[in-house]
Design a protein that fits this description.
It is built from 14 helices and 22 strands. It has three domains: 5-144 and 267-328, FAD/NAD(P)-binding domain (3-Layer(bba) Sandwich), CATH 3.50.50.60; 156-264, FAD/NAD(P)-binding domain (3-Layer(bba) Sandwich), CATH 3.50.50.60; 348-453, Enolase-like, domain 1, CATH 3.30.390.30. Strands 1, 2, 3, 4, 5, 6 and 17 form a seven-stranded mixed beta sheet that branches. It has a five-stranded parallel beta sheet with strand order 8-15-9-10-11. Strands 18-19-22-21-20 form a five-stranded antiparallel beta sheet, sandwiched between helices. With 459 residues, the protein is α/β, with parallel strands linked by helices. The chain starts with a strand and ends in a 6-residue tail after the last helix. Helix content is 34%, strand content 25%. The structure holds nicotinamide-adenine-dinucleotide (NAD). The site of nicotinamide-adenine-dinucleotide has 25 residues, from α6, β12 and β18.
Length: 459
Amino acid sequence: MTKRHADFIVLGAGPGGYACAFRAADLGRKVVLVDPRATLGGVCLNEGCIPSKALLHAAEILREAQEMGDWGIRFGKAKVALEALRAKKEGIVAKLTDGLTGLAKRRKVKVVRGTARFTAPNRLDIDGQAWSFDHAVIAVGSAPVRLPGWPEDDRIWDSTAALELRDVPEHLAIVGGGIIGLEMATVYAALGSRVTIVEFMDQIAPGADAEAVRILHAALEAQGVTIHTGTRTIAVATAKSGLTLTCEGAFTGEIKADAVIQSVGRRANGSLVGADAAGIEVTDRGIIPVDASCRTARENIFAIGDVTGNPMLAHRATHQGHVAAEVASGHAAALDTDLIPSVAYTAPELAWAGLTQSQAKERGIAHKVASFPWAASGRNLSSGGGEGLTKLVYCPETRRLLGATLIGRNAGELLAECVLAMEMGATLKDIALSVHAHPTLSETIGFSAERALGTLTDL
Ligand code: NAD
């Protein structure tokens, strides 16, 4: 058997893995990128972030077309050709994954299709082929959690199956009201399903600001979604005629559904890479612990992305990928994971970064809150926006931001200004004195800062 050697090898070609491979190549390393998939991009590009955003865009158009009735514009009942919608989504994914293949080629990154497992601290097996390496980066991601005891059934979907858009069930039940559950509720409600969400905690999007979540909760209900919080599913029964969920808690009873999405979180894939052989620790939750430089216990092995634990978000993985490539190539780099933005691409969007008001309270951190309701935003009202909110949490002494939450149209895009303000240590005065164009939704951030300073004239 021929033995192969890699100067720098990356296991997993998701947003963390490919970013790491490309950065290492740009730093002059000879890079091998290994993944069992036929295309680059991992879960995010192939069956996660990108296809879901394509379907969410279609959902937004369907919903807005209906809402234009109030403006005197009627389109009639929309007809959705599922096959064409599926093809459109797949075309977008293919364009992006092909683009990545081109980027890898131009950087002379060798892409190997296969599954890699460590056999020693500097050796790997890739589908029966032995490899040695100088540096390795584990970027093998995570997989959807399956509820224990649930049967195998074509009508019980994980996020991948939900994004395949197999059909539009008349009644769809979603177990788990986190980001995936909420985004899928937004898509399928717009496509015409009667959607019921069952969430175990006492609010959907647990961890997000409660005041903003109330706005999202009401908006989803207005879209026809039934939400049971504080409720757990204790059994699922399958019959030819449909599925029955038995629930207990704030809602106790049965939910009949034609399909069920399980979106109860993801589990890190650390136990799949033979980490033992490399002398690397894996927790019982499949997580490979790393420091801020993405180093594992082994000097020459790094780990990045979902496999290193929460928050399991693509943009965190990408930044960790750059850090690992740089540190392994002799540069100083680290990532502070306290400031990773979160966005639920629901209607309206919910976006937050840093501390929420309740987190600041729980941790005993001195804080104040300034907010601006979007009902007073000219841009929001004139573009058909509903209820929304911009909320800044700040330190009363330094007047620097500790956190920000936005809910409303394009909240995910607007959040970037707050993240930059936090990274740069900007004060409320810096934000308030930065001229925000009128009329824009970004004004709501400037207005919130002015409100805190007592200089606001728009409310
Ligand atoms: P999640 O952790 O965000 O949400 C899971 C939800 O399920 C939680 O609210 C939890 O309380 C609930 N839950 C757990 N067990 C339950 C039970 N038995 N019954 C009812 N509810 C139960 O996980 P997710 O939504 O599956 O998403 C997985 C990961 O993917 C997350 O890390 C998420 O951030 C990420 N993701 C991000 C985006 C985005 O950034 N837009 C989109 C999709 C997924």
